[in-house]
């Protein structure tokens, strides 16, 4: 059953499963299926919804806003993000400059059909904008009542420290980081999580199932199932590629014995595993069908015993990615050039 937890060092409670619409709303699924999946999330007790202005170039926000329109706003927590190119994709339509943040929050609110978002997140760190400028802009967004809290996504430990220090000086809170985190991809454990704990920041993690690989749907030597993430030419196939090696798929097959012992699926095991980490407040789940939401919601209160956590590590030994440098290496090292 879905639980409700405080996010970071704040008084905001969110559901420990979050419904996210990256690669689905406005892109991979029809609007009717998106609406049905959002309803399934609400029926499961999920009250927190994550999106971004860049998803389907704003369409994902628009669809989510329409899907939630009949729900009481005070009963929801809506999260969105800013950084990547949006809109007309002109020279100021990306990054974390004051101009882009101020224009983007207004556009996101209009598409979502709300006066405010609960958490406004920096989708990546902008190395070409002074951090002071970015944090001052976020402070003004909060003071204007357009966002209640600020979060970041895929920031390094050092960058999270910057955000924490500047936000305290400016009188607002950075309460969350949104990184990729799952059984196979653990790069935040050595540095990001210890720094986050010091700064009162918690993780709301994306890809808890490693783009679906940890569900066991992909098999060595077999074609990916029709309609799966690995067949999606709009972005899904590219993002899942790192987890599609024979070595990883073989190890994932061995996780079935652990899931069977708990009486759950491998997908539920993967989600429950992320929630075992005390610094993880919530895991983001997506869906192209409403029944997927109901299935994943089972994981919200599964507790994996210590001996099974150790067995998972033994099974996955050799395929776990845990180099903390990857957070920096995989991040953009310059603002996206969208004028070429």
UniProtKB/TrEMBL annotation:
<dbReference type="GO" id="GO:0005829">
    <property type="term" value="C:cytosol"/>
</dbReference>
<keyword id="KW-0521">NADP</keyword>
<dbReference type="InterPro" id="IPR036812">
    <property type="entry name" value="NAD(P)_OxRdtase_dom_sf"/>
</dbReference>
<dbReference type="Pfam" id="PF00248">
    <property type="entry name" value="Aldo_ket_red"/>
</dbReference>
<protein>
    <submittedName>
        <fullName>Aldo/keto reductase</fullName>
    </submittedName>
</protein>
<dbReference type="InterPro" id="IPR005399">
    <property type="entry name" value="K_chnl_volt-dep_bsu_KCNAB-rel"/>
</dbReference>
<dbReference type="InterPro" id="IPR023210">
    <property type="entry name" value="NADP_OxRdtase_dom"/>
</dbReference>
<keyword id="KW-0560">Oxidoreductase</keyword>
<dbReference type="GO" id="GO:0016491">
    <property type="term" value="F:oxidoreductase activity"/>
</dbReference>
<dbReference type="InterPro" id="IPR020471">
    <property type="entry name" value="AKR"/>
</dbReference>
<comment type="similarity">
    <text>Belongs to the shaker potassium channel beta subunit family.</text>
</comment>
<feature type="domain" description="NADP-dependent oxidoreductase">
    <location>
        <begin position="17"/>
        <end position="316"/>
    </location>
</feature>
């Amino acid at each position: 059953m879905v639980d409700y937890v405080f996010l970071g060092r704040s008084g905001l409670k969110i559901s420990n499963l979050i419904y996210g619409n990256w690669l689905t709303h406005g892109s991979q699924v029809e609007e009717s299926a998106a609406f049905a999946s959002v309803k399934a999330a609400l029926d499961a007790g999920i009250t927190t919804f994550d999106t971004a202005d860049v998803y389907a170039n704003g369409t994902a926000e628009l669809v989510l806003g329409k899907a939630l329109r009949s729900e009481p706003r005070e009963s929801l927590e809506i999260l969105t993000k800013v950084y990547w190119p949006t809109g007309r994709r002109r020279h100021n339509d990306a990054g974390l400059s004051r101009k882009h943040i101020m224009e983007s929050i207004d556009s996101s609110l209009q598409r979502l059909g709300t006066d405010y978002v609960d958490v406004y997140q920096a989708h990546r760190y902008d190395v070409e904008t002074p951090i002071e400028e970015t944090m001052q802009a976020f402070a003004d967004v909060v003071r204007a009542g357009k966002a209640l809290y600020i979060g970041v996504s895929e920031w390094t430990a050092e960058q999270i420290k910057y955000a924490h220090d500047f936000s305290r000086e400016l009188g607002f809170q950075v309460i969350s980081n949104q990184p990729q985190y799952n059984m196979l991809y653990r790069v935040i454990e050595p540095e990001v999580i210890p720094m986050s704990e010091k700064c009162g920041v918690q993780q709301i993690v994306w890809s808890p199932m490693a783009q679906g690989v940890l569900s066991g749907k992909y098999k060595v030597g077999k074609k990916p199932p029709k309609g799966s993430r690995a067949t999606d030419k709009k972005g899904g196939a590219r993002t899942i590629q790192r987890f599609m090696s024979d070595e990883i798929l073989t190890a994932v097959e061995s996780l079935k014995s652990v899931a069977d012992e708990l009486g759950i699926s491998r997908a539920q095991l993967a989600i429950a595993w992320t929630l075992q980490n005390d610094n993880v407040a919530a895991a983001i789940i997506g869906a192209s069908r409403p029944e997927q939401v109901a299935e994943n919601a089972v994981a919200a209160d599964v507790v994996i015993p210590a001996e099974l956590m150790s067995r998972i590590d033994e099974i996955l030994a050799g395929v776990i990615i845990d180099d903390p440098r990857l957070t920096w290496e995989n991040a953009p090292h310059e603002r996206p050039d969208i004028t070429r």
